[in-house]
Amino acid sequence: MNVYRAPIKDMLFVLTELAGLEQIADLPGFEDATSETVAAILEEAAKFATEVLDPLNQSGDRQGAVRLADGTVRTPTGFKEAYRRFAENGWNGLTKNREFGGQGLPQLVATPVEEMWHAANMAFDLCPLLTQGAIEAIELAGSDELKNAYLPKMVSGEWTGTMNLTEPQAGSDLAAVRTRAVLQPDQTYKLFGQKVFITYGDHDYTANIVHLVLARVPDAPLGVKGLSLFVVPKHLVNSDGSLGIRNDVNCVSLEHKLGIHASPTAVLAYGDNGGATGYLLGEPNHGLEYMFVMMNLARFSVGMEGVGISERAYQRALAFARERVQGRAIGAVPVAGPETIIEHPDVRRMLMTMRAFTQAMRSAAYVTAAALDNAKHHPDSVARVAHQDFAEFMVPIIKGWCTETAQRVANLGLQVHGGMGFIEETGAAQHVRDARITTIYEGTTSIQANDFIGRKTARDGGRVAQTVIAEMSETAKALVQSADANLVSIGRSLGLAIGQLKMSLAWVLSAYSKTPREAFATSVPYLQMWGLVCGGWQLGRAALVAAHKTSSVASDREYLQAKIATARFYADALLPEVSSLGAEVTGAGASTLALATEQF
Ligand SMILES: Cc1cc2nc3c(=O)[nH]c(=O)nc-3n(C[C@H](O)[C@H](O)[C@H](O)COP(=O)(O)OP(=O)(O)OC[C@H]3O[C@@H](n4cnc5c(N)ncnc54)[C@H](O)[C@@H]3O)c2cc1C
Fold first, then answer.
1. Atom number in ligand 1 closest to CA 200
2. Using N-to-C axis directions, what is the helix angle for 381-416 and 345-377, rounded to 10°?
């Protein structure tokens, strides 16, 4: 078994050359994010990922989390200790507010670190991921009392957090949430209901777990406008901050899953013994608004899971391809010893596809992370709005495209292994199983695509989409004007893809109002098109930088040439897929819907 090694060189290249780390470090409050500090943080995180998290990835998958007879949950061997070290090292509070003990670093810096956690051990990282979301929500909408009682301990990692949206009848459609919250004379609430699929809903890492629960107060409006958000701790917290009595929330079972076995996915029962004590967060009936704010970041993080697992799958496949001896490769440079499968042209195709997709996703995601920082911290209000628009446009792409692409990458990784890929011991099969959930939770790909054609494309008449297209076109123009034949070729492919994107955008804008069912029928290919082109755009930018640096700086020539070659492969082999997606978007809506329901 090879070990996961964080691709620090590529991460730093993307951070500095594409996502503008220097500009982010100039923003008020981010002065600490100098390139030296960031490089040191990445080195430390990489060490933790390789030495602590990675060794538990496969054993955690085999052992899984279990619910014991007394209703408590035991995580796999080593996970509790790893979590303790994770929290002690301060990794939980990287981006969090200094007021509550966080380090206040930019999202851009946390993003590669997060990629490492996902890659090293996705099942482990789900716990901090959900805690981040819960912290965000309390910070956004909580009273000072709630913030002071919960945030310092959640930021330090002493307590963890969960997100409780889903119920048996309410998955994608949260309007169907039924959990009830009844106001008590002391202004607390009693909650009654059942939540399912709750990630790290119970575990043995920490003494307390802070559940954020969507529920309805009596007489609340129907639908999503009647949802309120509550803080429901596993143990009540005394006024001096110490832990009080056990709350009426219990893990009644754990799900048996396809992947991420080490992360407990719990069914939680609220109020079986008189009601679970909860505290209203913000205003009643505004729960979904608050959830959406934190969901934006959680969706981005799940997109990053796609990037992380792709990198891991690529590294594993590459190591196997360098070792496995099989056949003579056509036309390969003869070698003295046995020839390994990396010499076979089709194995090269698979590895290049994995590599190019992973680098494209990483680049698009880090650029989005920078926009999230600028949207909050840029001193100019007009710039803040522009960055917010861009980030909101990109989040469903990062979630929808990176996670769908991760399926492809993980599957190719398995294929590179041949029969051994199907056998669990190589780890390639686990990548496929673990990656599979990413297109489902935090909103399925369909839900991302609905959001993307509706709120992100049609609502503003395509304004933000056009702005992004204009920026992409600038990159294509710069590439085509280059003296380098590789860059010219990348620019031409990008230009063609942008042309197809424009046609699809025009079609979506018209169909959204005229034939909305058709627009929704091809919303996923429309989203995937955008992902593919954004990936090509960022790799095109990377190629421009790499070409410039190769001619001016001798160091790292090999890395920079490989960057250009990877971008060229993406442009030659992957960007042309935009054409068939475009044909599907503009032409397949009606036939998708041609059968009557009873004809299936
Ligand atoms: C391992 C795991 C961990 C999870 N963790 C959490 C958690 O921590 N907290 C939490 O609250 N939830 C969690 N979930 C729940 C998860 O968010 C939901 O499973 C997901 O949102 C989909 O809901 P559903 O399963 O009810 O599927 P459904 O909503 O029933 O969807 C079924 C199918 O119909 C499609 N569909 C539904 N509505 C539409 C629509 N409007 N347009 C187009 N297609 C549609 C879906 O895309 C999907 O293909 C988790 C789930 C799993 C499996």
1. 8
2. 160
